[in-house]
Amino acid sequence: MSWTRVAFVIGIAILIALPAVASTYFLHIAIQILIWAFIYTAWSLMGRFGFVSFGHGAFMGVGAYVPALLWTYWGVTPWLGIPLSVVAAVLLAVAVGYPCFRRRVVGHYFALVTLALSQVVLLSLNAARDVTGGSLGFTQRAVGHSWYALQFPEKVYFYAIAVLLWLGGLWVWQLIDRGIGREALEAISEDEDAAASVGIDVLRQKMRVTVISAALTAVGGAIYGQYVKYLTPDTVSGVAVSLQIVFASIAGGIYSLLGPSVGSLLTLSLTEGLRVWFGTNYIGAANTIYGVLLVLCIIFMPQGIVGTLGGLRRRGRPHAKPVAPQGTDHSLIRRPSSAAQ
Known about the structure:
2 strands, ABC transporter involved in vitamin B12 uptake, BtuC, 72% helix, two-stranded antiparallel sheet, 1% strand
């Protein structure tokens, strides 16, 4: 069994035992880490193939607000509101992604388009203050313990939901990583023209991964909104949220299964630790230290924490000397040239 599987089994065991030993406060932090880990994993489905999107704050905002508004104003259960929010996020992704991919808008230009999308959703939520509460925020109608309303005063219920959500995100990541479409996406990220020349449907492949990523992000935003119950546009949408998703995913490592989850653990633990440490003293110091550490992490560990640790582990392995088969004429074995050495 590889060390990754061992670590995964140990992690699952810890997650199962955590509600029995952790306080309410630490369970609250664990729920947020798991939900954000799911959202970061959803973004990495695009980011790992070079499709850098700064628009996932828009998908998360749609996912968070649609079920909350439907429940509060019309009494529609979140079990229907969440799928509707996913449909809305997918339509938004298609409306932006299809013309961009059709017109070959890539690289920095695609990132700028998606950045504008996040800001449009943020401004729209602020402008609709009569419905959403604007910058003052929006509080969902509370009914106590209810599966119909997906509201639970006991955090253990949301903890179980967050664990299942996180595992579902890892499962989707594995499906794409091991699926036949992975080679196509990697070829597209290297050279779209070359990929198209060998028969790859570039538009279809890019739209597929974009729609999946947007849908999962909307689900994560919906669960997050149901958990916190109080929503503001700045906390679930906009450029700041999109940048948080991008930076935390990269810091953890977007090319490995658990990289985004490690990024979520790092960033949320660091944010909460600095907030508790500084308190109301030295206003802004916690955010400054957090930003500096994140920038240093990205500069000195471009492959992310998980990728860097994996590289160190591979370099630490002893290299076995090649053994020639029996009966082989050693004079025929070519030695590497000095240039290759």
